[in-house]
Amino acid sequence: MRIGAAVYGAMTRPDIHQFPCLKDNFGVLVHDDESGVTLSIDAPDADAVQRALDQRGWRLTHILVTHHHADHTAGIPALKASSGCTVIGPRAEAHRIPQIDQEVGEPDTLAFGALRAAVIDTPGHTIGHVSYWFPEAKIAFVGDTLFAMGCGRVLEGTAEMMWGSLKKIAALPPDTALYCGHEYTVANGRFGLSIEPDNLTLKARLDEAERLRAEGQATLPTRVDVELETNVFLRADQRSIRERVGLPLVPDWKVFAELRERKNRA
Ligand code: ZN
Ligand code: FE
Q1: Active site residue 129
Q2: CA angle (172 as vertex; 170, 175 as ends), nearest 5
Q3: What is the DSSP letter of 182?
Q4: Digit-coded pLDDT (tens) for 129-188
Q5: How many angstroms is it from 243 CA to the middle of ligand 2?
């Protein structure tokens, strides 16, 4: 029996290779054997990305950029020069990203062979930050919007904007794997525990993250359901947290803003 393209599309699982680079960034490659497509999520460091490609014998076809910061874009010119890949990135900050070929924003969808992705606007860390969600593969690349047990600093947008972006990620299917731009899990978990000392799931996860880091291993990717239970920033709408920070009656985003402020000072 021939398996139709639609069925294949629904079942396909790309190969994913995540690797640490620069100080605490992650590079991620997504490869679909059927079509030969290989995506790099951001381009923190051209040499590290090229090494990862060479190790697996994959040829780079696309770079998917989440936001304009140098630790996510500095590798673009060299990788594009060597591979001729297509650079896709957020429309709202395209002028700050080198050599963009395709500008995207919500609700654009992208297709790479059998892989399908939806672009989600997730502003706050930067004003045009986007995330890429692959619904069938159950993965999302959220850049510097959400980290394991944490979130990015609100540098260009407002706290209300960032809260809206985090809510979008929280609303993805619970079994969606989340790939993030940085390994900040232990510091985030310690801060989270200072806000929610009785959250045993958070405590257990922090212990696990500390063990993994002691062994030199990555704590990412995370998952939507895990974040909903252990990420105090996503949990700013919980009564226990708003009471804990002394803001029982304000809108959720103001509780989030207070948590972000406290983390900035921590
Ligand atoms: Zn950034
Ligand atoms: Fe970053």
Answers
A1: no
A2: 100
A3: B
A4: 999 999 999 999 999 999 999 999 999 999 999 999 999 999 999 999 999 999 999 999
A5: 31
